[in-house]
Amino acid sequence: MRYGLLGGKLVHSLSPQIHEIFFNYTGINGSYELLESSAENLPVIMRQVKEKMNGCNVTIPHKIAVMSFLDDIAPEALAIGAVNTIVIRNGKTTGYNTDYFGFGRMLEYNGIKIPGKKVAVLGSGGAARAVIKYLADKNVGELYLVTRTPENIDNHFKEMAPSCNVIDYTQLEKINGNVLINCTPVGMYPRMDASPVKRKVVEAFGVAVDIIYNPAQTILLQQAAAGKKTVNGLFMLVAQAVAAQEIWQGRQYDSSLILKIMKDLERNI
Ligand code: NAP
Asked: Is 229 one of the catalytic residues?
């Protein structure tokens, strides 16, 4: 079974390691290769993927462009407007967004409930789209999209989540809520000395989630007072990879497998 990751620059990707560990634990005879491609070369590489592979993941900068090469797109990926997983079955390509499923599984595993809750999401990039779609689908109570430039936010977010309030970081400082979710790259390796918000913002929420996975403890998570629930992005990273395997293999895997892969990975990053 031949799988891979299609993207621009891929040297730092953890995906090959995650999928190799997955193959070792499950006994599946699979390979996972890196497919670096420019935007111009996308038609050629997509033809090769369709002819020779069983599935592939897609990352920056091709998550949107790849959609025009697919035969079918799953509803969550269509609504989010980005595909990060493709399956090839009987010569037909179908696109999915497993960030959506990985994020959901991370919340479930950590016992973080969404229905009726007041949630703020920092950032308006690709990850925030998948997160906001998931929160809207799970009947979040009050939803805030926090951005540096509210005037630049397009209608896409409102279409996915009609009750979504778009605010800036000053307005966020006046809000108390249940869950704060960082979907910006602020605090990520190698520039780890920053947080997108002041400590008092983190204090005003019951739970702090940072989908960054390197470092494990971002400044934002460190700003949370002792005893407050905090969750980093490593479980989501592994869960979205396992969700891709679930699509490719046509079966479900237990969360204990995600944890085993996560522990192996933690030793290497
Ligand atoms: P992105 O599209 O490049 O950026 C996300 C958003 O962050 C931007 O649209 C921007 O929103 C905000 N932002 C960017 N630079 C900022 C700054 N200096 N200060 C404040 N806000 C800033 O990134 P992405 O693909 O959505 O990914 C975001 C983060 O999530 C990355 O760290 C990535 O590694 C992580 N991630 C983790 C997983 C996982 O599985 N754990 C999955 C996907 C992504 P505004 O312009 O609206 O402020």
From this structure: no
